[in-house]
Amino acid sequence: MSPTAHSDERIPGSRSATDPERLLPRGRHDLTREFVSRTQRDRLIDAMARTVAERGYASASLGEVCAAAGVSTRAFYQHFADKEACFLATFDRGVSLLQKSVAAAYAGPARWPQRMHRGLDTLLRILAAEPAFAALAVVEVLAAGPRARACRRQLLDAYVVFFAEAPRRAGAPPVPSGVVEAVIAGVYGVIYDFVSTGRAAELPQRLGDLTYLVLVPFLGPAAAARVAAEEPG
Predict the structure, then answer these.
(1) String of DSSP letters for 63-87
(2) Residue range 38-60: mean pLDDT, rounded
């Protein structure tokens, strides 16, 4: 591993924490303390994602996370106060990267419905490609305690901003204020069902359905169906 590599720019769990190129040399070396510390922390975060996805948060022991990371328990406590702190750091890193990608997809030039379609496509593809992080962030976050559940709530609330530019149909009654929250909860519910049953890889196949669900309150059935049938671009 190069001392200039930034592994924190990858979704947690996307690779094994003990890949040969990530292992630190034994004995004397000229690597900086900062690089060694960052490498250990990154490996613990990847190990947390993979161990929790395999074992579940409640059953994943700190020892199992350390073993998966190839890091001693003593080194673990140099980075995290406890298992919960490591879980929250893993969730935060992955969500930050996920949200950045979704926001970038949404920000591209297009009308609002097409931008929403593109953002949803990005969200579903990332979760499908990163099943370990999907399991941690969508399913196991509910078992990781009140702080984790509060982080989940903040994540769902953050999606409200994508509806700020939703159009209003001329002559149609206003969309009730709680509809956006209901739509977000509905999308989350579908994602939860697929991830919790080991079918995260199938999520991109539901893009059309979820796009329709998101758009129909604002566009009406016909227009929402047309956008949902398009290729995101």
Answers:
(1) HHHHHHHT--HHHHHHH-SSHHHHH
(2) 94
Q: What angle do CA 215, 217, 223 make, to 5 degrees?
A: 55
Q: DSSP letter at 139?
A: I
Residue 182: which residues within 8 A CB-CB, separation 6 or more? Answer: none
Kindly give, in sequence order, each residue whose CB lies less than 8 Å from that of residue 111, ignoring residues fewer than 6 positions away.
none
Put simply, whether the predicted model's pTM sits higher than 0.85 gets the answer yes
Query: Given pLDDT bands bounded at 50, 70 and 90, which one contains residue 1?
Result: very low
Instruction: Retrieve residue 122's tokens.
Output: 């990005």
In angstroms, the CA 175 to CA 168 distance is: 8
Closest CA to 13 of 128, 96, 90: 90
Alpha helices (H) along 108-174? 112-129, 131-134, 146-158
Q: Cβ–Cβ contacts within 10 Å for residue 195, how many? A: 23
**Euclidean distance between CA atoms 108 and 118, whole angstroms:** 9
State the Cα–Cα distance between residues 43 and 45, nearest whole angstrom.
5
Q: Kindly state the tokens that stand for 81.
A: 């106060």
Segment 190-201, tens digit of pLDDT: 999 999 999 999
Tokens for 155? Answer: 């994540």
Cβ neighbours of residue 88 under 8 Å, at least 6 residues apart? Answer: 144, 147, 148, 151
The residue length of the chain stands at: 233
DSSP label of 149: H
Residue pointed to by tokens 């196991």: 140
For the chain, the distance separating the N- and C-terminal CA atoms, rounded to the nearest angstrom, is 35
